């Protein structure tokens, strides 16, 4: 069959040109394509680093004789083939910040190879899979493979932030007939939960009682994609020292007469997995909810946290817990709490499967916020996506996966957000295999090269099968 013959030729080609592939990937990883609105401009709505990455890909595509289009700096598409129908592979070129370089064992923006393992920011999420798919197009072009459906690689510049890229792209371009995003896991991610990023905010009254203990300030990083894993609290008042002493067994406490500084740390985790780690919020509230002498402003925050969020990973305290047999359960996660003399804001992440609508979620959260006397602010909503396992696309993917790995291709759902949810008919598909650690969004992001080559083999089989 054509797919078996071509898959073998492609893998042979890739092994012969692996240095070229790694050089091209290394050049892309060397560009720190993090959103930087301070340098935004014409054709660079997300800043110059992302614009630089787009220009790098344009140069690569033109050198290979591939068709390339720049969509006002929001997205690119690179394609090969002809036909009225279209198969799209959705990728992104933006990355999350590298963070503290000292936590990396290799320079984050210098791709490093150690045996079969590649290291660097974006090597898995999503530059490695992106370059792999561009190499598929490159060889399709070189071999003049007869294609009756156009294959288009769509590359966005704001997947890690606002998703303006795909919104802009599909506002001006039609949906593909088939599509998948190599920005997830194998076997097949046929469902992604709906996501709501929001804040509960309260402005303090101009006057308030002081109580015997006051939370003078709370500081945590406002990263909506992670759990609240570091929290610094300043306590004051006659009972501040006594209260702070209760944190001493699991927190760093500094005493200064009637003022105390409490620093809490818990393991970092993605906000979509709140059940996997302790949350600083839980530890803080567990102590503070028993303090009888809290001032009114502090008590208001602690009551809100305790009544709606503590130890409620499934959103049950919000009245929004829901379980779907295929997509799993709702999740609720506090990602940041910040307080000063003016008021407080509480950032949270809520994700939900089929059976719950965004209208139901908004209605419930608005009602709760009104009861609590806080403002409900919605920052971003990403609709859930779901494709039936019986669909022709998933059946084709499942066969390709089984042919290459010898394993059954089981469908499953995630709380993660890939570009698959921007597709009317598509899923997330690889490149990570079960049991692999990639450390995306963390220091020492890594990708197994042999696994990537196996993923490419699967993609080639799918793309050719969809031509038939």
TrEMBL record:
It holds the Pfam family Peptidase_M20. SUPFAM superfamilies: Bacterial exopeptidase dimerisation domain, Zn-dependent exopeptidases. Its EC number is 3.5.1.18. InterPro entries: Bact_exopeptidase_dim_dom, M20A_pepV-rel, Peptidase_M20, Peptidase_M20A. It comes from the Bacteria. GO terms for biological process: L-arginine biosynthetic process; proteolysis. Coiled coil: none annotated. Keywords: Cobalt, Dipeptidase, Hydrolase, Metal-binding, Metalloprotease, Protease, Zinc. GO terms for molecular function: acetylornithine deacetylase activity; dipeptidase activity; metallopeptidase activity; succinyl-diaminopimelate desuccinylase activity; zinc ion binding. It is an enzyme of class 3 (hydrolase). Its cofactor is Zn(2+). Signal peptide: none annotated. Belongs to the peptidase M20A family. This is Succinyl-diaminopimelate desuccinylase. It comes from Vibrio scophthalmi.
């Amino acid at each position: 069959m054509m797919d078996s013959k071509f898959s073998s030729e492609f893998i042979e080609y890739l092994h012969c040109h692996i240095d070229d592939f790694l050089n091209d990937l290394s050049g892309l990883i060397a560009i720190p394509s993090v959103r930087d609105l301070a340098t935004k401009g014409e054709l660079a709505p997300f800043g110059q680093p992302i614009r630089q990455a787009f220009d790098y890909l344009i140069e690569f595509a033109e050198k290979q004789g591939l068709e390339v289009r720049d969509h006002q700096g929001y997205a690119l598409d690179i394609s090969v083939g002809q036909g009225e129908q279209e198969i799209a592979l959705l990728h992104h070129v933006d990355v999350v910040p590298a963070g503290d370089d000292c936590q990396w064992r290799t320079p984050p923006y210098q791709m490093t190879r150690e045996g079969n393992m590649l290291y660097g920011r974006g090597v898995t999420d999503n530059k490695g899979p992106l370059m792999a798919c561009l190499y598929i197009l490159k060889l399709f072009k070189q071999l003049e493979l007869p294609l009756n459906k156009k294959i288009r690689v769509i590359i966005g510049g704001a997947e890690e932030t606002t998703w303006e890229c795909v919104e802009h792209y599909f506002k001006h371009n039609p949906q593909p007939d088939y599509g998948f995003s190599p920005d997830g896991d194998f076997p097949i991610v046929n469902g992604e939960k709906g996501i709501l990023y929001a804040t509960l905010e309260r402005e303090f009254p101009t006057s308030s009682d002081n109580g015997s203990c006051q939370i003078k300030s709370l500081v945590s990083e406002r990263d909506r994609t992670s759990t609240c894993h570091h929290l610094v609290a300043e306590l004051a008042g006659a009972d501040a020292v006594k209260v702070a002493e209760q944190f001493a067994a699991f927190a760093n406490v500094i005493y200064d007469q009637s003022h105390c500084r409490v620093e809490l740390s818990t393991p970092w985790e993605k906000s979509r997995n709140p059940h996997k780690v302790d949350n600083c919020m839980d530890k803080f509230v567990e102590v503070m909810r028993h303090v009888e002498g809290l001032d009114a402003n502090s008590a208001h925050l602690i009551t809100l946290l305790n009544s709606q969020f503590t130890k409620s990973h499934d959103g049950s305290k919000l009245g929004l817990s829901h379980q779907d047999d295929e997509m799993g359960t709702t999740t609720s996660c506090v990602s940041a709490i910040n307080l000063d003399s003016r008021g407080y804001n509480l950032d949270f992440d809520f994700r939900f499967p089929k059976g719950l609508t965004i209208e139901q979620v908004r209605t419930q959260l608005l009602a709760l916020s009104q009861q609590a006397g806080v403002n409900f602010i919605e920052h971003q909503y990403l609709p859930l996506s779901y494709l039936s396992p019986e669909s022709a696309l998933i059946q084709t993917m499942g066969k390709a996966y089984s042919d290459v790995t010898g394993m059954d291709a089981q469908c499953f759902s995630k709380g993660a957000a890939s570009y698959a949810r921007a597709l009317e008919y598509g899923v997330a598909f690889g490149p990570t295999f079960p049991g692999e650690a990639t450390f995306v969004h963390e220091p020492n992001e890594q990708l197994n090269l042999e696994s990537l080559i196996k993923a490419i083999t699967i993609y080639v089989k799918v793309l050719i099968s969809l031509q038939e």
